[in-house]
Amino acid sequence: MNSSIKTENSFWRQAWNECKKSVAMHRKLMVVAFMTIMVCGIFPSDIDSYRDETPLLSTSSWLADATSKPIENVHSLLEEGVHWVENRGRFISTAAQVLIPLVLNDKVGLAQMLYSGLATTVTTHFLKRVKNDVHIGQTRLGERPNGGHHNMPSGHSSMAGSALGFIWRRYGAWHLMYLLPILMATMATRVFLSAHTISAVLAGAFLGVVVTYVMTSPRKVSVGM
């Protein structure tokens, strides 16, 4: 009984110690990321431009001109894709974030996923509330194109970014082949749905990737002789 408790405590402690070492190694990256997120807030998107013509409609119009297809068909197809990403596709990266360490029995990875995920969530919602009533010129940073609040940064983007940062750092860069398109599609979907400005999804993505990346250590694989 005592040995099992010690084992449980040991991997949580190991995960936390490796997390602290990784954070110490990437202080410069954290500073750059913080500055990038601040720049996204200093140069907010023009809310009125999102309402004059929605990003979904303007993109449909551009694609229709580029492909010589009827705009109604293009808009319908793009709208279906947007809703698929919003309701299903964006969860692929989150599922991978949980399933990969489970399948590999990577207890330290699971612990670091929880640590970094909690840090990302707390930071995202803290900034949402801090920036909600901040005005830059005539723009309130917390105002969404659809009229809602807590625009900056995007929680969907930070969640997708967190999954990317964790899997990339822990299990290798080849996972970016599918994680990066999912992140970009998630960001685009939030803009197309008038749920966030471009600056908000950029801030969310940077936050999620960097916070999780710096709090995660590469997995050590033992090679048998």
- Mean of the pLDDT scores? 88
How much strand? under 5%
Number of domains: 1
Radius of gyration: 20 Å
Strand order across the biggest sheet? 1-2
Distance between the termini: 32 Å
Number of strands: 2
Class per helix and strand makeup: mainly alpha
Shape summary: globular
Element-level helix/strand string: HHHHHHHEEHHH
Search tags:
2 strands; transmembrane; two-stranded antiparallel sheet; mainly alpha; 10 helices; 2% strand
Describe the structure.
There is one protein chain. The chain has 225 residues and is mostly helical. It has one domain. Helices cover 74% and strands 2% of the residues. The protein is built from ten helices and two strands; from the N terminus they run αααααααββααα. The chain has helices at residues 2-25, 27-42, 47-52, 55-67, 71-89, 91-103, 107-131, 155-171, 176-192, 198-214, and strands at 135-136, 139-140. The protein has a two-stranded antiparallel ribbon with strand order 1-2. A hairpin with a 2-residue loop joins β1 and β2 (139-140). α4 (55-67) crosses α5 (71-89), α8 packs antiparallel against α9 (176-192) and α9 packs antiparallel against α10 (198-214). The longest helix has 25 residues, at 107-131. It is globular, with a radius of gyration of 20 Å.
Strand-helix topology:
Elements: H1 2-25, H2 27-42, H3 47-52, H4 55-67, H5 71-89, H6 91-103, H7 107-131, E1 135-136, E2 139-140, H8 155-171, H9 176-192, H10 198-214
Antiparallel strand pairs: 1-2
Helix pairs in contact: 1-7, 2-10, 4-5, 5-9, 6-7, 6-8, 7-8, 7-10, 8-9, 8-10, 9-10
